[in-house]
Each structure stands twice: as structure tokens, then as C-alpha cells.
Amino acid sequence: MRFCTLKLLNQFKTIRIRNNQIVQSSRFTVQNDLTRRQIDKIPIKLSSIVCFYSSDSKKHFLEIEKKAESIKNVFEQKKVQIKDTEQKIRQKGEELVKDLRHQKEVTGQILKLKKDHLVKDILETKAKVREKIEGVVERENIFTIPNVLCVARIAMSPYLGYVILQDNYNLALGLLVFAGFTDLLDGYIARNWEGQSSKMGSFLDPMADKVLIATLFISLTWQELIPLYLTLLIVARDAALVAAGFVIRYISLPPPKTLSRYFDATHATAQLAPTFISKLNTAVQLLLVGTTLASPVFGYVDHPALQALCGITAASTIVSAISYLVSKDTYKVLKKKL
Fold first, then answer.
1. Which of residues 137, 171, 191 is at a domain's end?
2. Spacing of C-alpha 139 from chain mean position
3. Exposure pattern of 139-166 as b/e (b: 16+ CB <10 Å)?
4. Any idea what the Cα angle at residue 308 is, between residues 305 and 313, rounded to 5°?
5. Which residues cross the membrane (predicted)?
6. d(CA 137, CA 334)
7. Cα–Cα distance, 241 to 234 (Å, whole number)
């Protein structure tokens, strides 16, 4: 319709110019004869055609505006829907983040509670184990006067050996007398003073005697005052007894058997009970080293009595070793009284 109206306008423009006697050639070609005749015969006013065109265009434009308005409305509706969707998505994201944070806090609290509960259970179990251990193992005070005297004898033994090797027999004899006095004193205090007797002392006292005697025998043998065979016999016997003491400690220690508990001197687990022949052998050994150490001072080195005393010492050493093997009461495992 719009295309036809434009053609008619061009035709009427040509007709008007013809009426003003201006000859112009037509810019268009008439589609059929009937249309040309009607145009030549019927005088048509431009205003009516323009009005017709204007009303038709206005109607067309109104339709376009309506369509544009409807499209705009649809677009606005879609835009509103998109905003609503974005807002819903944003709200969902915020809710999801909030839920994740809440779950993280709850999980952290749960883990913290479980950790605290686990630590509490471990501490309670540790306390119960300690109570059970304390119920099996007896603790005692090891810092007693007899124990200090025993440790002093052990510490003095290397110096006594050094003095003998320096041929200072007078000082060595004095130190030996002092060591014998401390041996008698610690036994007297442990037997007569309350709280001075300890299970640890039952290990320390014989160990101090053995360390002292072994040091004296080795030093005097080096100075060729005591036969080598006798020293080897005594040292071997004492080393076996010391090793047996460590084995008894391990056997008597209740589980858990750890190094810290094994070397904890306050945990008394066993008590030694030396045999009579062992005590007699210790006295004979001390008599031998004492008289041998005094021989250079008083001038009776290689005396026959010393040779006889060496034989008696060897025999008593062998018998005492056998007594430890056959006797069943040489040590006693301790258990706390309930």
C-alpha cells in the first residue's frame, strides 16, 4: 500500500506541471492503459491523496508504535524477571555461604569437643596407669646417709687405685681404713636409725664393696703383690653378680618396661639377700687386700701367710659363687602392700 501511494504522488506531480504548461517527460511508466485514462480524465486533488497517505501512514505508525510498546513492555517484563532471578541467585548464594560458614563453625566446635574429650581420656588413662604402677611398684627415699656413704666409697675407689699405682702405700692404707669405716658406719645407721634403710641400699652396699675390692685387686696385681689368677677369679665373679643384678631388676620391673622406669632408683622392685658364705668371702677378701696393702709398709711382702690367705680367698670365692646359683633366697621381688 505504501509503495502504490508513492507512485501516485509522482504521477500527480507530473500532472500539475502539465497544467502549468511545462513539458516534462514522465518519470514513471503507467502499468496499464486504464490507469492512464483515469488519471488524464479525472482531476484528482493532491491534498486528498496526501490525506489518504497521511491517515494510512499514521495508522501504520500507530501499529508500529503499539508493537514497539508491546515489545518494550515485554522487554521491561523480561528485565524485571532477570533482576528478580539475579536477586534470587544472590540470595541463594548468600544463604549457601552462610550455611557453609555455619557448618564450618559447627564442625570446628565438634572437632574441638572431640579433641578435648580425647585429651581428657588420654590424661585419665595415663593417670590410671600411673596409679596402677604406683600400686605395684613401691617408691622410697634413696637420699639416705647409708646410700651417700656407699656412693662415696664407689667414687673413692678409682683414686685409691691411682695412689697404689704411685707406690704411695701409706696413703692407700689410710684410704682403705677410711673405706672400711664407712662400710661399718652405713650398716649401723641403716639398722638402727628409722627411715635410713632402703631397698636401694641393698644393691648399693654390696656393689660399693665389689667396686672397692676389684679396684684394690687389680691395682695390687699390677704391682705384683697379688697373683693374677686370684684377681681374674674375683673380678669374674663380681661381674657376674652385677650382671645378675641388672637381670633381676628387669625381671622384677612391672610393665611397661621403659628405660626411664628401669633406671629410676626410686622404684624399688627387688631386694638382695646375700648368703652367709658370700658375706664371709667379702670379709676374707678385705682381709687379704688389707694385709697385702700393709705388707710394703711393714715389710712382710711374699710372707707365707699371705700365700695361704690367697688360697683361702680363692676357695671362698668359688664357694660363694656356687651358693648364689643354688640358693633361692638371694633376692626378693617387692610388691606394694594393699
1. 137
2. 29
3. ebebebebbebbeebbebbeebbebbee
4. 120
5. none
6. 8
7. 11
- Average pLDDT, 10 consecutive residues per value, the chain (338 residues): 46 48 40 48 46 61 79 82 85 84 84 84 76 55 83 92 92 91 86 77 80 92 92 89 82 78 71 79 90 90 90 92 79 59
Residue 321 is placed in which grid cell? 659363687
* pLDDT digits 0-9 by tens, 273-283: 777 888 898 88
* Confidence at residue 334, expressed as pLDDT on a 0 to 100 scale: 66
For residue 274, which phi and psi values (nearest 5 degrees)? -60, 145
Residues 6+ apart with CB under 8 A from 301: 225, 295
DSSP assignment of 100-162 equals HHHHHHHHHHHHHHHHHHHHHHHHHHHHHHHHHHHHHSEE-----HHHHHHHHHHHHHHHHHH
What 3-state class would DSSP assign to 268? strand
* 118 shares its domain with 161: no
Co-location of 120 and 194 in the same domain: no
Q: 332 — alpha (psi -120 to 50), left (phi > 0) or beta?
A: beta
In a domain, 231, yes or no: yes
Q: What is d(CA 76, CA 71) in angstroms, rounded to the nearest whole number? A: 8
Note whether 219 and 80 are same-domain residues: no
Q: Are residue 178 and residue 307 in the same domain, yes or no?
A: yes
For residue 9, tell me if it sits in a domain: no
Largest Cα–Cα distance in the chain? 184
Which residue(s) pair with 303 in the sheet? none
* Nine cell digits for residue 49: 491523496
DSSP state of 238: H
Within a domain: residue 65? no
Phi/psi for 307 (5° steps) reads: -65, -40
pLDDT for position 134: 52
Q: Torsions phi, psi of 59, nearest 5?
A: -65, -40
Distance of alpha carbon 210 from alpha carbon 286, whole angstroms: 10
